Amino acid sequence: MENKKREARDSDDEDEMKMEKFYSLLRSFRDARDRRRRELLDLEKDESNRKKMKAARTTTTTTKDKAEISFEFQDFTTEIHFRKPPLVFPNPISCDASKDNNKGKKKKEQQQQQQDLALDLKLAL
């Protein structure tokens, strides 16, 4: 009977030791997790502070470095010099040109010249 009691006590002690070990492991995991969270939060705060400081520095330097821009009437009255000459597009063919075909050779020649200069918009397969 005493042996059974001793074995029961020993098994209870072993169970308690295992439980204590288990709970200590849980506590250590929680502590490690909480420490890591705090570290990450601190890093985020530091980065946001750096960004704010950097933004503040750039706004102060840009406002100091930039000169005020003002326009006057004379700025818009000067002549504009283009780098390239403007593109010249041919005159489009008017609908009235087909009615005036019968007036003479000059009209036919002019119309032929206009057709030569005009874009061919006919679709062909």
Explain what the structure shows.
- This protein is mostly helical and 125 residues long.
- It is 66% helix and 0% strand.
- It contains 3 helices and no strands.
- The protein is elongated.
- The mean pLDDT is 79.
Helix-strand blueprint:
Layout: H1 2-65, H2 73-77, H3 105-117
Which short descriptors sum up this protein?
single chain; 125 residues; mainly alpha; 3 helices; elongated
User: How helical, in percent, are the residues?
Assistant: 55-70%
- N-to-C SSE series? HHH
Radius of gyration: 46 Å
- In total, how many beta strands? 0
Largest sheet: none
Unreliable spans: none
- Overall pLDDT level: 79
**In whole angstroms, how far apart are the ends?**
110 Å
Tally of individual helices: 3
Structural class: mainly alpha
The geometry reads as: elongated
User: Percent of residues in beta strands?
Assistant: under 5%
In short:
With 125 residues, the protein is mostly helical.
